[in-house]
Amino acid sequence: MDISTGATVKSHCVGTTAIVYASDYLNKLTGEKIERECRRQLDSGCRALVIDFSDTQLVNSIGISILLGIIDIAEKSGAQVVFSDVNNQTIQLFDMLGLTRHVALARNEQEALSTLSGFNSTPTVH
Amino acid sequence: MEPSTHKLIHTFGALADLGQEVANTGDFTEMVRTSLHLLLGTLALRRGAVAECNDQRTLGCVALWGLDDGFLQEFSVSEQEQSELLSIETPALLIKESNASFLQRYHEFLTTEGIELVVPMIVRQELTGFVLLGGKASGEEFSADDFETIRAMVRHIGVGIHTHRLIEQVAQRAEENRRLYEELRAIYRDTVRAFAAAIDIKDKYTQGHSERVGRYSEIIAQEMGWSEDEVEGIQIAGYLHDVGKLVVDRNIINAPYHIDAKSSNELNRHPVAGYEILAPINHPYADIPLMAKYHHERLDGRGYPDGLTDEQIPLGAKIVSLADAFDAMTTDRPYRRRRSFEDVIRDLRQNSGTQFEPKVVVAFARAILQEISGNAKERRIMKMLGKGYLDGERVPLLLADLIAELDGKLQSTAANG
User: Fold this and answer.
1) What is the pTM of this model?
2) Which of A4, A106, B24, B60 could pair with A84 in a Cys bridge, judged by C-beta atoms 3.0 to 4.6 Å apart?
3) What are the chain A neighbours of B39 within 8 Å (beta carbons)?
4) In this structure, what are the phi and psi dihedrals at residue B225, rounded to the nearest 5 degrees?
5) Does residue A83 have a pLDDT over 60?
6) Class for domain B203-415, per CATH?
């Protein structure tokens, strides 16, 4: 397992899946760092992204816009995106705004990886 | 929490952030980019752009999100299209429904790029630009509430852009004024220097005198810690201190030997004549006429034209007085060769406190010493005095002694109140 914390965004790869950790408050500053890290991972050949929200308390409008951008980039690269360990309040927000139509949600990182491995059959979506 | 409440809180948060963002007068492009993010994130729109009116007929994209690099960077809008956009009562146009001619013209391009909504930004009845928006990530149609939110946020962005333009225009005008003022000052300085050269041409033995007095005065004032403006002013005063000589008979000025009392009286008119020439002029620096008038006054009251004493004499006039006397001592005259520098130092020591202001002498001596010891950025004084003039071994010691002696006197005078 290769772990990097480049530009303060923690990430690591499991095979061709990159797991990127979002910070406690997903706003412009942290959102742009996550976006850069996701782009970097996709450019270096990752085929799937797991964004881990276990530390994330709050996502603001800019955070939503940046996440939509990441989904867009991933779609254009033919990569899958899973959001893992998202708190209930943020799930409600993602649901309300329609983000969950474009990504799968997983309870934790392990489940996210299982979800991705099963994408070719039936995805486990929460 | 009810979904509607949740949505309201999310929108309020975005509006609060947007209010802060548009008030930010820093990086304009970043302000627009962040504002676009806030708008897109509020309704989870997948793509969008903000275009600003560059001039009457073109709009340039300032920020893009979720759109390809090939997206148009510039849109054109005719006068008729502009009037049409300005007359729309609820300015949020769904491309698929609107008949606005501007949208008709770009319909195919915008639809292909996934743009669904065009919102003109209108501030004070002017088209400031427009915001282009893609569809919602939820796939739902825009609701009436969505339109209200979009219009409110676009109005904020429009005001932000408009304010930025105003600030930019004010800054541009201020910069133009500053440049114009600098140009005027440069013209004034050049004119004064040319005038100084004209004054000196009248006196065939002292060519370059006014220029040198200007420069010595500048150096002394800098050493005394005067501001940049004040230093420029004293330099000008130095250039013009002898302007009154223009009204003195050329034969008196160019007399090869000491002149008689009558001619001396005539020559001594030049400070007042200089004042009369300079006083009606609106100089960009203070007290230039007074510095010309009083550059032959002495601390002991034996100078002319008014016989002023110490505190009555403006400090600028004291500086010009020393610079004038120093140049007279260090240049050849028709009836004598220039004096050695050691002799000049002796003169300064003897006449400090009676003819010359000691503080000014100390400042000048310090400036000369710095040049001799290689601590000055430029060797301006040495250049004017010519090669070898300050080479004597004793010169630095004499200067240091002069400084110490006068500093001591100044300190004891200050201590005695």
Assistant:
1) 0.64
2) A106
3) 61
4) 80, 25
5) yes
6) mainly alpha
Beta-carbon count within 10 A of B85 CB: 21
Closest by CA to B154, choosing from B15, B25, B44, B55, is B15
Q: Is A125 contained in some domain? A: no
Is residue A126 included in any domain, yes or no? Answer: no
Tokens 């260090």 belong to residue: B330
Which of B9, B21, B37, B150 would you mutate first to test chain A, the one with the most A CBs within 10 A? B37
Q: Which of B7, B41, B139 sits opposite A96 (nearest CB)?
A: B7
CA distances from B175 to B162, B171, B172, B228 (A): 20, 6, 5, 20
Higher pLDDT, A4 or A108: A108
Query: Which residues constitute the domain of residue A108?
Result: 2-117
Rounded to 10 deg, the angle between the B209-223 and B228-240 helix axes is 150
CATH class of the structural domain B3-172: alpha beta
Q: Among partner residues A61, A63, A98, which is closest to B137 by beta-carbon distance?
A: A98
Contact present, A43 and A79 (Cβ < 8 Å)? no
Q: What does the pLDDT average to over A108-120?
A: 83
**Domain boundaries defined on chain B:** 3-172, 203-415
| C-beta separation of A34 from A71 below 8 A | no
**Does residue A98 belong to any structural domain of this protein?**
yes
Task: List the CATH number of the domain containing A34.
Answer: 3.30.750.24
- Domains identified in chain A, total number: 1
Tell me the ipTM for this assembly: 0.84
- Would the pLDDT of A5 be above 60? no
Q: In this structure, are residues A124 and A118 in contact, taking their beta carbons and an 8 Å threshold?
A: yes
Interface check B3 vs A, CB under 8 A: yes
Residue A42 counted as domain residue: yes
CB < 8 Å to A32, chain B: none
Report pLDDT digits (tens) over B33-44.
Answer: 999 999 999 999
Q: Are A36 and A8 in contact (CB under 8 A)?
A: no
Question: Sheet harboring A80-84: ordered strands across?
Answer: A2-4, A11-14, A17-21, A48-52, A80-84, A104-106
Answer whether B200's CB lies under 8 Å from B207's CB: yes
Q: β-pairing, A25-26 with A58-59? A: parallel
